[in-house]
Amino acid sequence: MEITRARPSLFGDIAHGLGFWTDRSAVHEAAAQGKALQLQKLIQGGAAVNIVAVDSITPLHEACIQGQTQCVRLLLDAGAHVDARNIDGSTPLCDACAAGSLECVKLLIQHGATVNPPLFTFSPLHEACMGGNSDCVQLMIDVGALMEAHDCHFGTPLHVACARQHFDCAKVLLNAGANVNAAKLHETALHHAAKVKNVDLIELLIEFGGNIYARDNLGKKPINYTSQRSPTNICLEFYENTPLSLQQISRIALRTALGRRALDDVSKLGLPNRITCYLSYQPPPDLDLDFDYF
């Protein structure tokens, strides 16, 4: 029976489309289908947990792709290679992040999974953004994932989040200090937001200091990728013609200076709640409860 990946992946669909599912072992099948008891019996019977299919997918890849937490635990405890790479270079952690399986991600990290792969390759953080899994994005950042990890084809995780219109992932990255103006062939996340016609993303990126005048390798600004009088065109035209307020500029300057420490440091400044919320890009508290403000 063919097992289909149940999540988006930049590279995984390529390998799947080639039909490399021959010679899959019983261990692969049990792991993919979440048959923990069957998997346990196979392991106890001496089955190899690191056996690979033709496309170099291991049983651990299978379990992570499908978010089968129990099977992941069994395989890891039996000595499965936590950083095994398949034909497209993905590790089990990449697959777990893409699937949005927070528990699988935690297990893999506990067993020493590599959070940051070699330079210029698609990282687990990229995969979490690709799948729109903001909880996994936050967890990966918390354990040290590089937010400026740069894939030679897709850019940074922020580029991926914006290209896929995953607003929550983009906000998590920006709140954690991701470089809003990181460029891929001079193309910024704001260019992506303009191309996908997402006004909410455009406003979010600009609030975090996105450069509306940045030009890509074709010499185009984000507004050049919008249609005349479209919502995105009107939005970008407004920001081009209306300078940011002193409040906004001050917030951006503070966030730039503090970087990844911003959320923690701002909360320690002893400022009124409303100012702290503003600087942290959080909704203002209820005025009736905000006694510090008065």
TrEMBL record:
PANTHER family: ANKYRIN REPEAT AND SOCS BOX CONTAINING 13 (PTHR24136:SF53), SOWAH (DROSOPHILA) HOMOLOG (PTHR24136). It comes from the Eukaryota. The keyword NAD does not apply. Belongs to the ankyrin SOCS box (ASB) family. Signal peptide: none annotated. Pathway: Protein modification; protein ubiquitination. This is Ankyrin repeat and SOCS box containing 13. ANK repeats lie at residues 55-87, 88-116, 120-152, 153-185, 185-217. The keyword Repeat applies. Keywords: ANK repeat, Repeat. Residues 236-285 form the SOCS box domain. GO terms for biological process: positive regulation of protein catabolic process; protein ubiquitination.
